[in-house]
Amino acid sequence: MVSRVIPVDTFDFVLxxxxxxxAKRKILPSLFHRFQIGQFDDSCRIIGASRSQMDQxxxxxxxxxxxxxxxxxxxxxxxxxxxxxxxxxxxxVDAKVENGWNDLNALMRPDTIRAFYLSVxxxxxxxxxxxxxxxxxxxxxxxxxxxxxxxxDLASAQKLNTALRAHFTENQIxxxxxxxGKETVQNLMALxxxxxxxxxxxxxxxxxxxxxxVAESIGVAGRGGYYDxxxxxxxxxxxxxxQLLCLTAMEPPSKFTPNAVRDEKLKVISxxxxxxxxxxxxxxxxxxxxxxxxxxxxxxxPTSRTESFVAMKVDxxxxxxxxxxxxxxxxxxLRARESEIAVHFRKPPHNIFADDQDQDELxxxxxxxxxxxxxxxxxxxTIKDPGPGGMRLTAANLDMTFxxxxxxxxxxxxxxxxxxxxxxxxxxxxxxxxxxxxxxxxWADPIIxxxxxxxxxxxxxxxxxxxxxxxxxxxxRDNRRWRTIKA
Length: 487
Ligand code: BG6
Hints:
- It is a single chain.
- The protein is an alpha/beta fold.
- It is built from 15 helices and 15 strands.
- The strands form 2 sheets. A 9-stranded mixed sheet has the order 14-13-12-11-7-10-9-8-15, with helices on both faces. Strands 3-2-1-4-5-6 form a 6-stranded parallel sheet, sandwiched between helices.
- It starts with 10 loop residues before the first strand and ends in an 11-residue tail after the last helix.
């Protein structure tokens, strides 16, 4: 069973920052894969736009190289990229100067969906939005797509929203959080809202706590300049982990429509309690004994206090979740690249096996939603240990790895493939609304400010582990423990 491909309408896709890293690694390969699979045809046009001076042929050669490097051509059995290259055009534009915008305008076709993807620094969002509008390139059906980071605090996010909304309406603005395009993240919504099994249990009466982990094994080498101004809180928690928390905690929307879903997510963010200093741990990885660089080796500032790890306990103050904390953690240079949401249920209220087996404690059930690697779902249940000898109990996994349960799905789609096609379809469900982003910053800002004012440094932690010791204590003091990050 191969996934069904529903073709999208003809479009002109303008990629600003076309020669940048994200364009090369993700956006262009994603467009290529969707073309290969037949989701759009040769009536569509992809126009690279950046300050670099190059012509159409040079841009095509550049994209060809990018596809060879990042397009997984072997895995997809594709050697002929020429038909895709034929869709490409190029315009040299500079957000700060007038020149070039007429050339770009001349490439646009009437009565065609226009999508403008801004893979550029946020400081250019306003200028580009304005040029697109004033030069008549953007019309009322156009879509503008912006990458994260969407600001670095509430005030800057508000400014960006104002700059974009001066030229585009909210339903033309697509703020990307690529976590929302991940298969399992969407599956979380299917799991919760297309099954009757979970909803009666999905609350503080039955759930003891939830752990959300986004662990990475890589460090910040190569992006230290950006990262040091950001840190794990801005880079991961305010957006990716916040989205995972929202989708886990939100009320069922009445429909799977953009605003119904986003209204519910916004309510979760608005219900978050401020996080006090004793409920948060930040860390910074140190050099390893094997000679791997420390965080500070790449930060560009030997005294930097920027965190490469955060763990925190978060309370969602509403009827559903009062008394059920959410523990979040994310960090660089940890033992493995492993992301999951683990829902820990409460223990059964009474143990009928206690006398028989000297078994005072029954293991609570746990539902684990794995984002990466091995996307899938595991339900940890207690069963009888097979064989004679009485009622010995043991915990076993009901396991569903998507790759095994749904074979023949072919290559796993990159999150960007889905998100870009959603832009063309005009579906904003998997994109962040302006008020959502602002609410997330309003929650994150006080934490970041308190660190800036504090004289405390982040705790240093070993590479290849699970973060600073204090992050373990955050759990231990509540008689809980983090799930192991497995190598
Ligand atoms: C990005 C962050 O948004 O997400 C990176 O800027 C991080 O620091 C990346 O490495 C993680 O994404 P993924 O899809 O590899 O989990």
